[in-house]
Automatic annotation (TrEMBL):
Keyword Ribonucleoprotein (UniProt): no
GO MF, any single term: ATP hydrolysis activity
One Gene Ontology cellular component annotation held by this UniProt entry: plasma membrane
Listed name of the protein: Heme ABC transporter ATP-binding protein
Pfam families: ABC_tran
Amino acid sequence: MAPILELRGITKQFPGVLANDHIDLTLEQGEIHALLGENGAGKTTLMNILYGLYQPTEGEIFVRGERITVHSPSDAIKAGIGMVHQHFMLVPVFTVTENVMLGEEEVKPGGFLDRQKAAKKIRQISEQYGLEVDPSSYVRDLPVGVQQRVEIIKLLYREADILIFDEPTAVLTPQEADELFKIMRSLAEKGKSIIFITHKLREVLDVSDRITVIRRGKVVGGTTPAEADQNLLASMMVGREVDLVLERTPLEAGEAVLEAMDLLVADDRKQVAVDGVSFVVRKGEVLGVAGVQGNGQTELAEAVTGLRKVTSGSIRLMGNEITGLTPRKITELGSAHVPEDRQADGLVLAFPVKDNLVLNTYYKEPYARGAVIQWDRVVENAKALIREYDIRTPGYDTHVGNLSGGNQQKVIVARELSRPIHLLVASQPTRGLDVGSIEYIHSQILKKRDSGVAVLLVSTELDEILQLSDRIAVMYRGKIVATVPSEEATKEYLGLLMAGIPPEEARQKMSGKPAQAAA
């Protein structure tokens, strides 16, 4: 019996880059097949070809034994292929029903939308696949995990049999991720076939039937969870052994470096995003800020680094009031920043790598003498950092916008960690990096911490938070709901806090005792 999906010799050539190099891949009916690879390995390009967003340079696609040509996503949908994107494609002010039927509208005689018929079909799909959702709810009112169910229902509504999940747990709590895996298994048991793209090795081992690893555009191996472990998968992805667990020396925190008091910060819509937050980060300490994306962590980091105006409250760095100062002034006081949005806030994409590596020091010695840039010193610095941080670039004069996302991130990390600092604000510091680069950057952060630097780490990756943090502050709807010493933190407990469960109730859930009724 032919596989439900077969890719034969898929090759994609971009100018100067061979993104996919004769890739063969099969997907069986009812199978969850994980696709693993470092940033820039070619996973997303391959899936974009399958979904009709790119056209292959060479190769063939077969669905149920028949060769097909996929010119667009509509062709993919007609062939029964659907994709759940990492960033949801939903209209917040529409109901679930309106979102699901968008583009596939049910129409009554007279030209009116038949929302009742569509809602009935959504309920049937929900019951069949364990995707509990109210068709009449507005998407803006739904938790992130339920919004993702809506995305899955959209595909099933269009009768997709082959489902592509692209980094599906990126915005979920651990509990929501576990619920998603149950849904994925239920879909597979009912005959749906799933391609699962992720960089989280533990998830691959938990949910997959088969694993294919891509490195630098080629398939380098395949395995099953029973035959693999995280170290094997990491070495297959990177091409060398990787130390996934770093030793953290005992905490020896010193004086306060960063102090925030009663911070109130608004988001871009002028809504309160940081609501009365206070905390301290001390010398030689990593304070991790955990939370599902969108709970104020981004605005908090931007306020601390001068990228966002503070409505009220105070921020002090080494005893100096920095509230309202410019990013340059804060940088000059000994702060470093790895921003969440590398392209908007961390790089000038049209500038060469060498220029980006001195963006915050180009006007100082040794890179400037008066108003004259000392280009020989800029080049010397670039060569050293490219080598030390393994920045994969054709040369230091290459425009940084031409590098992969992971290598753009390495440019920022190299620039920020290679100078004397008191404070490091790291927002999603390893987003888009392969496991080898993650290992290196984690070791550099801990090295800075051990040298006495205070680190404010903002990350949606709980593994990263747990591995690097001495204390963990959990944010929910703009507030810090609890601060937990690392030795007392577990994924389950942090996940409950991230979902808005009060600390006492979360502890009771962990112990299995019923919460006391409110008086």
